[in-house]
Amino acid sequence: MEQTDILSLSLAELESCMKEMGQPKFRAKQIFSWLHQKQVTSFAEMTSLSLQLREKLQEKFCINRLNIARRLASSIDDTVKYLYELPDGNFVETVLMEYHHGKSLCISTQVGCRMGCQFCASTIAGFVRNLTPAEMLLQIYETQRDAGCRIDSLVLMGIGEPMDNFENVVTFFRLLSHPDGFGMSLRHVTVSTCGLVPRIRELADLHLGVTLSVSLHSPENRRRSEIMPVNRKYPVEELLEACRYYFSETGRRVTMEYAVIEGVNCTRQDAKALADRLAGMQCHVNLIPVNPIAERSFRTLRRSVERFQQELESLGVHATIRRTLGSDIQAACGQLRRDAGKSLENAQENESRNKP
Ligand code: SAH
User: From ligand 1's centre to the CA of 10, what distance in Å?
Assistant: First the structure.
C-alpha cells in the first residue's frame, strides 16, 4: 500500500483520516502540531500518542525528508544556498538570507520550469514536475533544522513558476499560515510570477494577504515577448491591469522586478516607456543586475543600473536596486541544480562505461 505524505494534509483532511481510524477529532490537531510546530521527523517522537496509534500512523503515512546535497555558505555575508535532493532524486535550490528584520528564505516551487524566460537558468532544461505542498514546507523545516534559526519571511522566487503550480502553492499557503501549524503570517510572504494573468486575478480573489511581485523586465510588448514567451499570451497591458486589480482587491502594493540587461531594456526610452506604463499605479520597481548564466551572453554594467534608476526616479517612479547577497555563491538561480544534474549524468555515464 502506498503511504500518504502526511505533511501535505490539511487539518480538516487529517481530521477525516482520524475519524476513519476510529480516533477522536482532537488527535488530528495533536499530530498537526507535532508535524508543523515541533517539526518532528518520525511518528516515534509523537510521545503524546499511544504506541499503538503511532504504529498505525507509521503504516498508513510517511513523513518525508529532504537531503542536503550541497550547502554553499557565503564568506561575504550570512547567505547560505542549499541544493536539496527530493525523495524521488530530483533537486531544487533554497536560499537563506539575513536581512535587518530577520531571516528570509527563498524557496523553489517546481522542478524546472516551462516558462522559457531567456535569461533564466531554471528553464533551460525544461519542466520536470510540480513540488507538493509538503516539499515546499520541507524547504523551510529542513533549513531551520540545519541553520538552527527561525525563518521570519519567505519569497517564492526560487526554481519554477509558482502560478503554474497554483493549487499546491495555495494549499502550501494555508498550511504555512495555519495557527495550529507553523503559523507564519502571509503578510511575510512574497510570491513572484512571470505574469500568468488569470492566476494573478484568482490569487487576488482569495484575499490571502501575500505580496505580489511581477517579473516585468520590459515595458514594451515586442521586446518582452522576445525575452519572456509568456508575454505572447498575456501582454503587458493585461498584466498591468491584473496588477491594478490585485492592488484594488488586497490593498497590497505590487513590486515590479526588472532585471537590467545591457542592450535589451535599459535605454532612456525604456525608462520613459516604463514610467508611462506605471503612471498612477501603486507599485514600486526593483532593479536587479542580471545574473550572467553560462548559456547566454546577457550582462549588466553597474553604472547602467544606477543611471536607469535615476532616470526612473526623475520620471516619478520609485525604484530601488536589489542588494546583492551572497554574491560569491550566487550562481544564477537554477545553475546549481543544472550542475548537479550534469555531474550526476557524468557519474552514471562513467559507471556504465566502467561496467565490464
Ligand atoms: N517564475 C517566477 C519566480 C522565479 S524567478 C518569476 O518569473 O517571477 C525569480 C526572479 O528572478 C524573477 O524576477 C526572474 O525574472 C528573475 N531572474 C531569473 N533569472 C535571472 C537572472 N539570470 N538574473 C536576474 N534575475 C533573474
Answer: 30
